[in-house]
Structures are given as structure tokens and as C-alpha cells.
Write a structure and sequence with these properties.
By secondary structure, the protein is α/β, with parallel strands linked by helices. It has 14 helices and twelve strands. The strands form two sheets. Strands 1, 5, 6, 7, 8, 9, 10, 11 and 12 form a nine-stranded mixed β-sheet that branches. The chain has a three-stranded antiparallel β-sheet with strand order 2-4-3. The N and C termini lie far apart (48 Å).
Length: 474
């Protein structure tokens, strides 16, 4: 039966361009640094019986979120240091005498830190509610590290990530967890995880890794790749609904090509067409009644929820999703820009949480944030500049929320327990490896393969430990 043409269909030239990019993006990216000791069937055998489905959703705040205004100290002495250090980009503290002031920090508490009273940006009220309800946690001062690093190491330039404070390098290091290599190198930790667990999705017609934000390093492995889709579903090829055009295209793609490039292109094109049809058919009957914000970010999260709801039809046991929200490089107007952006994130993930409840998947999904780097504690006069460690958040049924994990640092310049490398560029006290390894362990990566996914993990954590790396997941 002819397929109805959709508004997002491609013409033939556009289709060829996209398919070529997909072929290039899915090629092996591993260097000799990493030899993937991959036996995916053995890895899958370690998955407990009844562990039927899990999904990881990466929210990448591109540009470098000023996260010490997202999560700030509120206790009197600590807040005084914060206000002095941040100067004209500090937020007002919560005021018991004026609790309705919309500009003040929202109060939260946490055990396990040097003090217990913290504040959230006034624009993230929904996140504060999720935190108080125990569904959302913060992880403090996370950043790219090769090994635990001191101020002396930094000053001597020992064991530092390549391209420190650079957008492109730090984005890559966050997504690969290989900060000693410049460039894409060995692909992303999400892609390596997908390679290991591929047999769990043996019957699936599309990749374990789905991106709403284009091709990315995080989801690229030796065999794994990012399946790129849009808010309204996968883009299908124009004219493929015409039986004559369909027959002509199929005949070209089904030929046996001696030329390696032609053969690879045909196979990728065939896979692209088949997977687009399968994906759109799987989500076509999914209806999400939860209201999402009318923003691109909100619509992308709704698309993720629809794909999760269709996991049975897609024959998925494991899925990762990648959603990028840009615009966080606030050298100027950090206060005004965050006042617009942070509510968008807060409201979007709150709707996503409610949608997971609607489809009965809250206990099977973990959403987590990442960003290029933190930003300087000191003001440049109108904003903040590139730095290093920053705060992240995780949301989900498996998250032990209502708490800040890692070590929240002093928000001050200079010495003390602070790890200031200059201008408030905080040396991370929690590595990306520890943060990401906890997510990967929950997802199903066994201790014997943890160093395959995170080559430096032994510098921070014993994979065979009975305790998790940070403890924010059940």
C-alpha cells in the first residue's frame, strides 16, 4: 500500500547527503589506545533476569552552564563568601521575611556536605519540587580529569586534560571520557556501552542510541552510532511511497557492489530507509497526553517519551537518548540569559517526568545533565568565563534524590579547601568518569568491562568495589 507523504520527507538529493553522513558517522573511531575487549553476549549474560528495559537520557547544555548560580550556598557564612566572590552576578539569598520574592534563591537542604542549606536558581521551581520529592539529585563540582588533581598538579601542568577550557575539547572529553586524547579519538562512552550491550537489542531494527540533536560523539562506538530523528519522527525519503520509485530505489540498493564505498553506502541507505519506516510505525500509535512546554527542548523531550513508550514495538531492552540545548556561553548577561533558559530546562524535565509516569516508565529511566564545563566564580563585569568543574543533576525513579553528591566546594577565591586554579576556575573534585560510570553500571555495564568504557576509571574507583562510584543511583 502506498505510504502517505509526510511534511518532513526528503527529496532524493537531501536523502543521499544524509545517508552519506550517517555512513561516515558510524565508522570505527577507536584508536590503538583502546582495544575494545567486547563480548557483548557475555556482557548481556551478566544482566539479571527480569531486568527488562532501561533508558539513559543525556541533556547536554552546550556552551558551559554557570552552574554555581543553578546550585548556590544559602547558609549564612557560605552565602556571604558566595556573594563576595560572585559580586554583581550573585543571586539574592532566600529571605524568610519575603518568601515570595521571585528573584531569591529557592531553599533546599542536603546532608553529606560541609553545610546543609543550599539554594536553587529562582527559575527552577519545578526542579526544586522534584528534588524535595526525592526524584532529583545534584552532583557537585564534576569535570574532566585524568586522575585526582591538586592545585600543585595544575600549576606544574601535570596530568591535565587536553585543551582545558576549550569548548570543542571539553565537549569531546565529557562525551568520550578520554581527556588525554585530543579530538574524537575512541568515540563516546555511550557508544562503547551500546557496543557491549548490543545483544540485548538483537531483534531491534534501529540503533540503541537515538539522538534528537544530530550526530554526536557520545553515542558513537566501534559499531554503534546515533540514530538521528526529529520531534515528529524519522525523516523518510520523498517518492518512496510511489511503488515505481520504491522498486527503482530498492533495485539499486539490493545490488552487490564490488566497490567498498558503494557497498557501504548501499547498506547504510537500505538500513536508513528500513529503520525510518520501522521507527515511525512504532511511534505512530503512541499518544502522550501530558502537556509539554511549547519549546524545541520541550518537544524533543516529548519525542523521547514517545520513543520510550514504543520500546516494545521497537524491540528494545536498552536505549540512550541525546538532547542538546545550546545557548549557555554567557560571557555577557549571565543573569538575564539564565533567567530565560533555566526555567525552560526545569519545566521541560518536569513534563518529561510526568509523561514517564503516564506511560509507567519512571523506574526504568534516568535523565542526566552534562555541559562543556563550569564557569568562573568571579565576574568579568557582565558575565562569567570558561572554567572547569561544575554542578550537574540526575532525575529518575532509580535516583536517590533530595541530596547533593560529590563535594560541594567553597565559593571563594584563593586557598582553604577550595580548589581554585585562578579566577574561580574550580578543579573538579568529582571526575566525569565517576559520574558517568555510575550511570553505566546502572545501565548494565559489568565491573569487568567498566575500564573498557572508562579507561581511567581505576584512577578514581575500584570497579569491583561493593559500593557504587558516587551513590546517587539505586
Amino acid at each position: 500500500m502506498p505510504r502517505k507523504r509526510r511534511s518532513q520527507d526528503l527529496n532524493r538529493r537531501e536523502f543521499i547527503g544524509q545517508a552519506s553522513c550517517a555512513a561516515i558517522g558510524s565508522t570505527a573511531l577507536f584508536s590503538s589506545l583502546l582495544s575494545l575487549r567486547m563480548t557483548s553476549s557475555a556482557a548481556a549474560a551478566e544482566i539479571p533476569e527480569g531486568d527488562d528495559y532501561k533508558a539513559l537520557v543525556c541533556i547536554f547544555l552546550a556552551g558551559g552552564n554557570d552552574s554555581f548560580n543553578m546550585l548556590a550556598p544559602r547558609q549564612s557564612d557560605a552565602y556571604a563568601q558566595y556573594a563576595l566572590t560572585r559580586d554583581n552576578i550573585a543571586l539574592p539569598n532566600y529571605d524568610l521575611n519575603d518568601p515570595t520574592n521571585e528573584n531569591n534563591l529557592l531553599p533546599i537542604s542536603s546532608e553529606g556536605q560541609a553545610f546543609s542549606e543550599f539554594g536553587l536558581h529562582p527559575g527552577v521551581g519545578k526542579m526544586r519540587d522534584l528534588y524535595d520529592e526525592g526524584h532529583l539529585a545534584f552532583i557537585a563540582n564534576v569535570g574532566t580529569l585524568i586522575r585526582p588533581t591538586t592545585l600543585e598538579d595544575y600549576q606544574a601542568r601535570n596530568f591535565l586534560p587536553q585543551g582545558l577550557f576549550s569548548h570543542s575539547d571539553q565537549v569531546t572529553h565529557w562525551q568520550t571520557s578520554v581527556p588525554s586524547v585530543r579530538g574524537a579519538g575512541p568515540g563516546g562512552w555511550g557508544g562503547r556501552t551500546a557496543d557491549l550491550l548490543a545483544s540485548l537489542n538483537a531483534d531491534a531494527e534501529i540503533s540503541m542510541n537515538i539522538s534528537l540533536s544530530g550526530l554526536n560523539v557520545f553515542q558513537t562506538g566501534e559499531n554503534a552510532f546515533a540514530y538521528v530523528t526529529g520531534r515528529n519522527g524519522a525523516t523518510e525519503m520523498v517518492s518512496y511511497d510511489d511503488p515505481f520509485e520504491q522498486a527503482a530505489i530498492d533495485s539499486m540498493l539490493d545490488l552487490e557492489y564490488k566497490n567498498l564505498f558503494q557497498s557501504t553506502f548501499a547498506k547504510n541507505s537500505r538500513r536508513y530507509i528500513d529503520s525510518s519506516i520501522a521507527f515511525n510505525e512504532a511511534i505512530s500509535d503512541v499518544e502522550i497526553t501530558t502537556l509539554f512546554p511549547p519549546t524545541t527542548f520541550g518537544e524533543n523531550l516529548k519525542a523521547v517519551a514517545r520513543a520510550i513508550a514504543a520500546q516494545d514495538k521497537l524491540k528494545m531492552k536498552r536505549q540512550t537518548f541525546f538532547v542538546k540545548r545550546g545557548g549557555w556561553d554567557h560571557h555577557n548577561e549571565v543573569l538575564n540569559n539564565q533567567a530565560a533558559l533555566l526555567p525552560e530546562i526545569s519545566e521541560g524535565i518536569n513534563s518529561f517526568w510526568n509523561a514517564l509516569g503516564e506511560i509507567g516508565m519512571q523506574d526504568k529511566v534516568v535523565l542526566f545533565s552534562a555541559s562543556d564545563f563550569g564557569r568562573t566564580l568571579s565576574s568579568n563585569g557582565v558575565g562569567s568565563d570558561h572554567a572547569w568543574g561544575g554542578n550537574q543533576f540526575a532525575l529518575g525513579g532509580p535516583v536517590k534524590g533530595g541530596r547533593i553528591y560529590g563535594t560541594y566546594p567553597e565559593i571563594s577565591l584563593g586557598s582553604g579547601i577550595n580548589v581554585d586554579s585562578g579566577r574561580g576556575r574550580l578543579i573538579p573534585t568529582t571526575s566525569v568518569d565517576e559520574y558517568s560510570a555510575e550511570l553505566a553500571c546502572w545501565f548494565g555495564v559489568g565491573p569487568g568491562e567498566l575500564d573498557t568504557v572508562f579507561p581511567n576509571i581505576a584512577n578514581f574507583y575500584d570497579p569491583y568495589s561493593l559500593d557504587p562510584p558516587l551513590g546517587f543511583l539505586l
